[in-house]
Amino acid sequence: MLETHPPEEIRERVARRLNDPDVAAWPNPVHVLNHPKNHGAWLDIVMNELDGEWYEERNPITLAPGIDIPVRLQTDQGRGRTMDGTIELFNSLKGPKKLDIGPYPPMQSRPFAEEHDKMFRWYEYWLKGIGNGVMDEPAVSVFVEGSREVVTGAQWPPKETEYTSLHLRPRRKLSS
């Protein structure tokens, strides 16, 4: 925004956003708006509504069909990570790809520390040309909570998946 709008327009837009009670209630966006030159990338985010054209043209899912370079995606289950979005992104990519879905991380886990060997093999193959067999392995690896097993396959969800509708019942129960 700072590169495409004159300073007086930025000031007016910032003032309007600061008057939005949903923005004004949060210290971080308020700080970004009060110091726009210090936080250019964040200013673009705060100045745009939560949904709309600005976000859609930057949405990884929107951009994925045009990406044909090798991509390795990794996410853990739980903790607010966007597992559904990661799976959707994986399914939208056209080039060589891998997807690893790890277990629900322990409280102090550093993200993906357990997966460094897999990442290094991926980069060795694609950046250094080392034939280490990484592309001979299944495209998807998923840790299954409860069983403590890793399931692999060519896609996620697997083709043979059978979906069952579940309904909430009294006393925190589910039934089909």
From TrEMBL:
Q: Which InterPro entries match?
A: AB_hydrolase_fold (IPR029058)
Q: What is this protein called?
A: Uncharacterized protein
| Species this chain originates from | Streptomyces glaucosporus
